[in-house]
Amino acid sequence: MFALLLGNMQDGGLPHAGCVCGNCTAARRPDFPPHYVTSLAVVDERQTPPAVYVLDASPDIKHQLHLLAPWLGAHPSQPHRLRQPDGIFLTHGHMGHVDGLAQLGKEAMNVQQLPVYASPVLGELVVENGLWRPWAHQLVLRPLTAAKPITLAPDLTITPHLVPHRDEWGTGTFGFEIRGPHRSLFYVPDIDHWNQWPAAEEILGRVDVAIVDATFYSTTELHRQIAIPHATIPETLQLWQNLPSQLVLTHFNHTNPVLDPTSAARAAVTAAGATIGAVGLRWEL
Length: 285
Fold this sequence. Notes:
CATH class: Alpha Beta
Number of strands: 14
Strand content: 15-25%
Number of helices: 9
Structural class: alpha/beta
CATH superfamily: Ribonuclease Z/Hydroxyacylglutathione hydrolase-like
Helix content: 10-25%
Strand order of the largest sheet: 6-5-4-3-2-1-14
Order of helices and strands: EHEEHHEHEHHEEEEEHEHEHEE
């Protein structure tokens, strides 16, 4: 049983639409490794076929499902297609975390009775979205309750925890605590400043691995006047001075200097003992 990082970028991905910054220009080179929008898979190989759960339906989901081909295997009645995942968990309703749902309709993957785990309000928005309504009946909504574990198999649970993050539609934002038979992991790709979440140190300190929001390295990164609610990477590194869990950074904005392996920012992250999230990183559970 393991977790697999399927993406490490902020909602707009890399390269960003309409951007010619250094990071986006580098990402357009043919030899540049894939940097998909943030997502995580949980795979239980004890089952036959393996159970595969995807956390967040990113705009890059068609590429990310292909990464899971060895465990999804062939569709039972259409061998030229992949089997659909066993469920999708949604952290919240922003673009980079739900837009992949559009790939599940009849124009693309055409899933059947696919469980989607989300907050009750987000689930209702998915069903009532006029653009998605023609195929929303192909999903089976499973409402999540904060702090209530979902048991997916013996010794495999996913527990949603409410975290502070801008909330235009009242859906709430979840971080997911994943517990396997041997190890635990917390996935929170979007969160506002750490001091706005009273349970931060308790929850992040009791897991083995924490994959967390690292959208920006600094508040001046965008070169324009705009409020940045996310904690910066240096703030996160400071918090982790008192936490025992392995820190993995994800959800990088395309402007983030840590995307450049030669940057001082990357060196600072490495020196602090943190891991730069990359597509394909794997953790046994």
